Amino acid sequence: MFFSLNKKFFFAILIFFLLCAGIFTIIFDGIIGKKIRAEHSNILTRNQYVIELLNENISLRRKISTLIPEDTVKSSDSLSQKQQELSRERRLNEELNQNYNENYATLTESLRIISFGAALTLLSLVILWFLLRRWVISPLDKLTMLSVAVANGDFSQRLKQKKYRITDEFDTLMTTLNFMLDNIENNITEIKQKELFLQNLIDALPDAVRIIDDEYNIVMSNKAYAEYISQKYFFSAGKCYNSYDKKADCPCNSSQYICPMAELKHYKQNSIKLIHSVNERPLSVNSARIDLNGKFAIVESFRDLSENIHYSHQQKISSLGFLATSLAHEMKNNLGAINIILNGILQKYYNDDNTKNPEEKKYLEMISAQIGECVKVPERLLKLSRNSKQTSGEFNIATSINDILSLFDYEIKSKGITLVQNFSNKKEKLSGNETDFKMIVLNLVQNAINAMPNGGTFEVKTNTNKDELLICFKDSGCGIPEAALKHIFEPFYSSSSEKNGTGLGLAIVKDLVTQFNAKIEVESTENVGSCFKISFPRQKI
After folding, report:
1. 65 and 47 share a domain?
2. Where is 512: in which H helix or E strand?
3. In this structure, are 170 and 248 located in the same domain?
4. Which of 219, 277, 394, 471 has the most crowded CB, counting CB atoms within 10 A?
């Protein structure tokens, strides 16, 4: 229970005064007052006894004088003498009573003096209490209120001091405290400014950044990391491992995620680079050790590799556009001129007489038709290289797949690959971005061709049901090892057989399939072949 110094001093002085006054009164009454009362009682008893004896003596003498007449004169003289003695005793008794009254008056005066002394003592105590309150308690109250404000984090409070007065230790203490608080507030302001600058600095970074201490606590993060949390890449948590799994009560094990903290701490590395798949999002994790207030800590930066996939996709589209433009320019000019010459020959020599050299005419017409097909190649590339952000619409699936297959016609034939096309409905249409769909087909066809360097069978088939459109790309190539199946859609991952691959082809496919709200699955057996199945949702009419 809190009891202020003000009340403590007041009640202590009051109790002390009452205790002293009571003890003094009890002692005074027990020693002096009792003695005076006893003496007065003894004097009264003695005087009363003497008076009674005298009265009896006088009474006896009177009786005797009536019995002895001759002695009347002597008795009368003796009686007068006794009466004089009685008068003296009475006067003595009156004097004793007067002395008692004087003693009592002296006692009363002493009590008055004592009361006046007590009043002076009380006044002195009140003055002492006032001075203690002014010089000690009031400064302590100010210091207490200031300490409470500082404890609550308010460093703007200051102790007010009066000017032009004599200072004491408390004034010196107040001045020192005010100076100390000024320094603390300035240091806090400077620290906050540095923290704000540091926070703004890491917030300006495009990658998600977080700092983790040696107890796995996330002590700082930037705005990009908060956006990753809002996009449900991570959970909002105090421990780093809880950002992956809210229910986790211990750091990540190697079977789930490779822990950068453990790697950097145990293997004494300065930095480490990893790729984590978080909520089906490929994240590149760069971690480095730092010193945090003399303790080991790490800083982690996250980058969504989907952005690199989009960039690679756009880069490939741009390259295709450049290639298509160059081919269109070169092929249309040269092949167009050749085609004009062939048409002129046909019109001049074979138009009038259809029976003249029909076989030569047939070959020339075949050459003209092939030249026309060659001219269509850059046109297809130009269609494929259109901006992938163009307005979505309906497109024919079979036509789009044939456009891509025609681009690989020479490579398919040169490697001895048998192409099988099995479309359940050649008029089936799909709603979306046609360029993105063609890029999906292009990557899957190219991977299938690369998997069959010595020839084989490549089958493209479509099938439909009530809710889905199924497209299957099946090859009889080298297949994918079982250990690699769960990584093939990760960015920059490529099998050892794909020495020239960038590892982005299937990652782009997965990203584009997701944009169609579709699903892709893969079945593969090593040295037997692979089958990629894509399920597109059908448009409800």
Report:
1. yes
2. helix 505-515
3. no
4. 471
